[in-house]
Amino acid sequence: MPQKKSSWNHWNLLTKNGRHVWAFKAESKNIDDHLNNADSFSEQELLAFSKDFAFDRQLNPTSADKVYRQQALQNNSSDYTGNKPLAKTPEEQNLIDCLIKGMHYFSQLQSEEGHWPGDYGGPLFLLPGLLIASYISDTPFPRPHQEMMKVYLFNHQHTDGGWGMHIEGEPTMFGTVMNYVSLRLLGINKEDRKLQKASAWIKENGGAASIPSWGKFYLSLLNLYNWNGFNSLFPEMWLFPKWLPVHPSRYWCHSRMVYLPMAYCQAHQIQVPENDLILSLRKEIYNEDFDTIDWAKQRDRVCEKDCYTKQSPVLKWMNLFTNGYEKIRPQWLRNKAADYLLKYLNAEDAQTEYLDIGPVSKAINSICIWHAYGKESAQFKKHVARWYDYLWVAEDGMKMSGYNGSQLWDAAFITRAMLESDLGQLFPETLNKSYQFIDKMQILSEHATHQEFFRHPMIGSWPFSTAEQGWPVADCTAKGLSATLAIQETGLFKKSISDERLQQAVDVILSYQNKNGGWPTYELSRAPEWLEMLNPSEIFADIMIDYSWTECSAACVIALLEIQQRFPDYKDPQIKLAISRGLQFIIQQQKQDGSWYGGWAVCFTYATWFAVEALVLGKEYIDAEPRKDSIAKACDFLLSKQMSDGGWGETYESCAKMIYTQAETSQVVNTAWALLALQAANSSEKEAIQSGIDLLIQRQQDNGDWSQENISGVFNYNCMITYSAYRNIFPIWALNRFYQHKRC
Ligand code: LAN
Question: What is the DSSP string of 305-363?
Fold first, then answer.
């Protein structure tokens, strides 16, 4: 690939134990030295960023991770030796060449330690949180980082002046205010033409008073909202008896870990002092005179462009009570609650090496720790050191990632994809490195405080990102296990993961099965579904408890089926029962039209692939008739959505609207999922499969990559997230399956 933009080379990715950090002008590979050269820049170099990272969101708002990929291709070599099997026909040769090219290209993106670092951006409300933490604590990022952030924020502004909640979404009040304020905190003048447009957008759409509650929270911290305009989170709730269904320990861990530091901030009414910038901002984002706003009246006001989940009557009643309580609360009780919150925050920081469970809590925890212990404290410094784990450089600038990466998840998927046929074995070094990485990422011990802070047992589990971050995930455990079994089955590599560790992973998977037979994300469903009525976020749905999901369930069922092959006697009756209950759950989730809704990627093609794969592999565990019907309906559904060019394509709107929404053009990732499902089901529509395969082959670029199309990932129905590796992993997997089927 020709080297295009000189300032791209100023940024280098350093990795250690799966951790990745972008260093400005790195001189050594030591990740701890990544800030050593952050001061050695010229103004001209910084000015060049906006030219070199110019990005046109009109062409495609989803960036293609070009900076990392260019570097990896320059620095890494592949272990491919040029061998290839002989084909019987030119078509087969073409398929083999395409597959080898695809794997060859992708193997060069692998880091030395065996994983595939990649862009995990998408949401547009994450970087603002981190910038607020940096501003409040007076801990600025180095100038090169700041300039790259400005570039990113401007790159994702819409022509009408607004920002969406995520890079593909239409402008919202939340997205626009958060990003506008961020640019102002970064020092952009309010007279700037683009900011003027943004300010006009905010005012025309009702002003910042109508920002959703998460925005009200952030603005309150900045003294740009009044805490009285934010519905109380009732911090005392954490002192409730644990058996109560509304005790926060029963919430979905992401909600729990976001509302925890939010409650701490509310309890202490943390607020930056007024200054010129704040006073000016109050004029820039409100239609009203800030000092005359009736804050209590703003609590439930939400701009209609933002509203995804309406407040339930139950929540309204609860807010009435909690806001009323604020007027009479005894201070000693508030202090007691705040002390407990701080204790919990410290435990979370310690358990995750200060990475925390995700990007939102990462930023807010930093603020709490700064508030509790000060800027010079060891704890706060440890927090700041980990801000950088969440930053990613791509051709659209510097963004905050949706997690500290998707390291384990991608490594497990690609390993399985490559091993779908023995063609993958032409890359032994790549597979071996991936195996070593998966080995290192398995979680092998429990934290001393795991029970005290409501953590699910995790020995033997795998996380989504790194062992250091250490939050176990049910389906990541399943995928880690499946990949390990596939690698071990080749017999090619020194066995580093013992049978005992595999069995521990099985135990974890079993421990995660919900009462309804399905599998959740991080923890069992701990409270009844009616708790959802208390969801205070107007922008997300289904965040209150950890639900059972089709994809998570299918991944766990598949791993259990594979383990039965490997250790037929290990917990045999228990595993069999778990599998059949899991399959029942999956069948129950099927929609009338034969599809399944996908909660974690776009969308129906994704979950339908998972479900079909589990139903096909699990043939001995459920009755033949319902199983066959279900698979046939799924195939009919998929076939009905095939586009005239042979591909499939959904947009992110499938996720929010929960209705299959076809994209203007077919998408390689959706096409690959549909093909994986149809092939798994052994569909008799061979021509349909052939035309999908032809499309994947045609869309491949000369270097073996596929171009980045629409965004692929989602969470909580309404926010999208980039999975940059999917455009390689899934075409490779679908083609490899096709190759394997042809040969048999
Ligand atoms: C993820 C990423 C991975 C994803 C899969 C493993 C793919 C899925 O099958 C289970 C759920 C899980 C683990 C997941 C849950 C929600 C996450 C953590 C994310 C989408 C990454 C970011 C998101 C998190 C909630 C973002 C922060 C925003 C809040 C609303 C708190």
Answer: TT-SSPPPHHHHHHHHHHHHHHHH--HHHHHHHHHHHHHHHHHHHHHTTT--SSHHHHH
Residue 1 pLDDT exceeds 50: no
| Closest residue to atom 15 of ligand 1, CA basis | 715
Phi-psi region of 332 (alpha: psi -120 to 50; beta: other; left: phi over 0): alpha
Do the first three CATH levels of 126-400 and 407-636+715-729 match, i.e. the same topology? yes
User: CA–CA separation, 167 vs 401, rounded Å?
Assistant: 12
pLDDT digits (tens, 9 = 90+) for 18-72: 999 999 999 999 999 999 999 999 999 999 999 999 999 999 999 999 999 999 9
Do residues 613 and 663 touch, judged by C-beta distance below 8 A?
Answer: no
Q: Which amino acid is at 708?
A: Q
CATH class of 126-400: mainly alpha
What the block records as the tokens of 586 is 């999956």
Q: Kindly tell me the number of DSSP H helices and DSSP E strands found in the chain.
A: 26, 10
Going 191 to 194 to 199 to 200, the CA torsion angle's sign is positive
Q: What is the CATH number of domain 407-636+715-729?
A: 1.50.10.20
Q: Which one of 403, 522, 543 would you pick to mutate in the ligand 1 pocket, going by the greatest count of ligand atoms within 8 A of its CB?
A: 403
Torsions phi, psi for 713 (to 5 deg): -105, 165
Long-range contacts of 740-743 (CB under 8 A, 24+ apart): 740/420, 740/421, 741/679, 742/92, 742/95, 743/421
Give pLDDT tens digits for 101-139: 999 999 999 999 999 999 999 999 999 999 999 999 999
Q: How far is CA 537 from CA 167, 207, 255, 353, 659, in A?
A: 20, 19, 10, 28, 22
Specify the ligand 1 atom closest to the Cα of 258. Answer: 31
Using a pLDDT cut of 70, give the percent of the chain over it.
99
Q: Decide whether any atom of ligand 1 lies within 6 Å of the 254 Cβ.
A: yes
The b-or-e profile of 124-145 (16+ CB within 10 A means b, else e) is bbbbbbbbbbbbbbebebeebb
Q: How confident is the model over 384-388, as a mean pLDDT?
A: 98
Q: Report yes or no: 710 and 168 within 8 Å, Cβ to Cβ.
A: yes
Q: What is the pLDDT of residue 83?
A: 86
- Region 487-497: what's the mean pLDDT? 94
Question: Quick one: average pLDDT of 387-402?
Answer: 98
Can you give the residue ranges of every domain in the chain? 126-400, 407-636+715-729
Task: Tell me, letter by letter, the H, E, C secondary structure of 384-438.
Answer: HHCHHHHEEEECCEEEECCCCCCHHHHHHHHHHHHCCCHHHHHCHHHHHHHHHHH
Protein residue closest via CA to atom 17 of ligand 1: 715
Give, in order, the Cα–Cα distances in Å from 170 to each of 26, 450, 503, 552, 576: 37, 41, 47, 29, 46
Query: To test the ligand 1 pocket, which listed residue (127, 539, 550, 600) has its Cβ within 8 A of the most ligand atoms?
Result: 600
CA-nearest residue for atom 2, ligand 1, is: 464
pLDDT attached to residue 4: 58
User: Residues 65, 389, 396, 475: which is the catalytic one?
Assistant: 475
Residue 475 catalytic?
yes
Q: How far is CA 605 from CA 552, 602, 615, 667, 679, in A?
A: 15, 7, 15, 11, 13
Q: Residue 14's pLDDT is what? A: 97
